[in-house]
Amino acid sequence: MSTSLFSKTPTVAVLDNRSLTVRDIAYHRHPGSPDVTSERITRHQYDVRGFLTQSADPRLHDTGLANFSSQTDLTGNVLRSQGVDNGITVALNDTAGRPFLAVSSISTAGVGMEDRSQAVTRTWQYEDTTLPGRPLSITEQVNGGAARITELFVYAGNSVEEKALNLSGQPVSHYDTAGLTQTISIALTGVPFSVTRRLLKDADNPDIVADWQGEDASDWNGLLHDETYTTLSIADANGAVLTTTDAESNLQRVAYDIAGLLSGSWLTLKGGAEQVIVRSLTYSAAGQKLREEHGNGVVTTYTYEAETQRLTGIRTERPAGHASGAKVMQDLRYEYDPVGNVLKISNDAEKTRFWRNQKVVPENVYVYDSLYQLVSATGREMANAGQQDSSSPTATIPLPTDSSAFTKYTRSYTYDEGGNLTQIRHSAPATGNSYTTDITISNRSNRGVLSTLTKNPSDVDTLFTVSGQQKQLQPGQSLVWTVRNELLKVTPVVREGDTGDRESYRYDAGSQRILKVSTQKTSNSIQSQYALYLPGLELRTTKAGATQTAGLQVITIGEAGRAQVRVMHWESGIPEGIGNDQIRYSYDNLTGSSQLELDGDGNVISMEEYYSYGGTAVWTARSAVEADYKTVRYSGKERDATGLYYYGYRYYQPWAGRWLSADPAGTVDGLNLFRMVRNNPIIFVDPDGLSPSLRTQLPGSNLYEPKLRTGEDRNRRGASHLIPSRIENSLVEGTPIKLEDALTEHALSTTPILTDLINPTKVSMNKVTRDILANKSMAGGILAFNAIRFSISENKDIHALRIVDSETSTYQTGEGTVAAAYWAPQGGYVDIPAHPMTGPKVVLTPGFSGCSFVADKLNEETIRVRHVQGGKEDLEYNNLTADEHGQGMIDAMEYRDYGYHHDSQGNLMENITGSAFMIYENDQWNLKYQSLANAPGISSLREESFGFFNKKTRLTGEIRHGEGKNVVKTKTLSLHH
To answer: What transmembrane ranges does the database entry give (predicted)?
Structure first.
């Protein structure tokens, strides 16, 4: 691809006299017309206080519309927001800053008028002021109708029994939209030992809505099904989960190395013997996976580009001596352009084939425009492939051996100025499989549908709900949504005067799917399929009428290395041609798509390749019955019978390359709430339907747009608050240690790094140090540091960083422990050399509980490191002048990075606090951070002498700490620039 296409296409920010960005200008060129450059301007307006009030993209601004407008209170909290994609919402907090009232699904009824006929009002109730103020319930009301209590919280008391189970004061019963979740016991570390789920009665009926009216559990439990599903866990003293027993008594066991990284995993099916899932793993010094061996004897190795650490190869093979014979099963090779776009993916394990005067190479080649949108992709597809739609692809059986199975294709993609994919052109000349898919985009929003639904842009908005949910999938296929904007029901087949086919869903309080029910009418009965999603387990049942014909347990291995491992155990109705307790190892590609499935002996079950936006290009299996049981496919997500992919918060239409509903996270990924992964699905991945996992890259560089998330976008939706452990105060002796010893990889992954002692109220400091810490100039500097190790118990330490100056005692200085480091003050910055030849090679900063740690490239010689305070992202970073950002952001650690982690059950937990530092190693700066659960603290430090003839000195810290593991997640960001 010619580099001239990207020449002189910068991203430009225009600032007003308050340094607020009022214009974002991008320059678009297409490879098909490289001499034509179009200027695309996104416009922003602000109120007199500097809060954003309106944004408009290039397409809608030309029609006189704004994508978003908002009104804020005096502190900047958004009270009312209006978006062309997601409608109008109103939100109010109480005096404590907690959610109090929210009204959504408000539409416009003319200039300056609102239509609340479909409005949903949600209210939160809390304990009174004599209690801690915990939430009690959430009530929902539709269009002024009867109020339903959709969520209810019950807390444990202070009885002897509750104390014995560590439950005192904890939320032990959560009644939600799916039923009841109960916490039966908790470890001192906060890890749930026993959790039970019960569903609503008739939960499979989509018309049943939870309403937890009544005075006590006797009223509420009457709405529940009798069956309970209990998940058990065992954790070590640090809080690391070692075993998990699912609701059907299948046990998963894991082990970790000294750095806290996975070293092996095992599975014991109920009544069976333990079997290996992951035999061994090897990591680099930076924590990147280099090699893993699974229980089927298959080995996967990973290679990385030395300069950028980008993944360049994934090789999966049966090694020499394997019982099934040595063979390379998959050998993926990645080639990138200088900014990280993938240009080519080849599979060297597959051979080049020749058919109908064409050379069919097992590779994909990609072309981008100057905005890094994918505009062309070439690859191979099955020779019998037809036009892509919502129907399930048919696998080629058995695995092909001749050259006539594959042919070449080219796909071209067209986008409008708002980033909407408007056309997909497919061409496979050798088989005549050529067609065009057109998407009609509204002239008043970014809502869009296939042209088979309408070709008139003025009609598109009528095919969506007020909040931006699509109401038809294909002509005649209706979509129904809950008041929480979750997909409730799809009717793929409608029969006039008769029962239609249907697929319905039920979700928990975090909007995560817990139940799927599919019904199809056969010649003489109704066949129903049920899928219940539990921690580490899917229970899938098939019924003909009221008679169960099959019962399948799918055990999903939580720690299986890179592969997704699923074990299929039939309780009844095992199909012919597939063995019971089959293990399926699914090996993925760069974006997590399941490409290769192997069995427990390392033999191929199936192979699948995908078009760029998710359709199936190649799909072959050794048997039809095994192909039918592959559900996890593109991007590692489940494909439903509707053809939709379920991502967690949204559903995705691969045949249209767009989401089915507006982004519930708002503008976290730009003004277009329907755009899929920034129109670059080759490098970007959306893990949950909220936003891609990578930042917005600046054209022509390795840098990113200097923008941190603000407001609610800082948070991760659906997280539960971490259950606090019991707090103790202990006097603990401290020992001065070298700064470098507190910053090793092992220390980072096991020991909390605290900055409590970098505080003039707790330790003595001279005036120079106090002035730097006071941050009067906003700029940091170079200070001398060491660390103090406090050993609370045999296996539990704390590392406290401290500044060494003229006020520091000789004992606290410690012999040979002191080293210089840069200091980035909270709310300020420090400038450091991009490649230090002499001087400090460490950057330290205060601990984090809502703040961000970000590095900008000022120029080729200097990096500016900022500690941005939570809630002040615009003031301290986003709205700074272009000169203060220099060439752009290298990378950042934000609250959503360190403030959350997944517990042993896969639940998203909010832990709030973290620690971070930067260190120069291997010719580059790395930003390293740790997420801390129930973070300890240091209340005071005192030094005392003892002994009469042989006087000694002792440091004692008053340490506030809980039981169990504090470091729950670590990560290293390589600051390539």
So the answer is: none
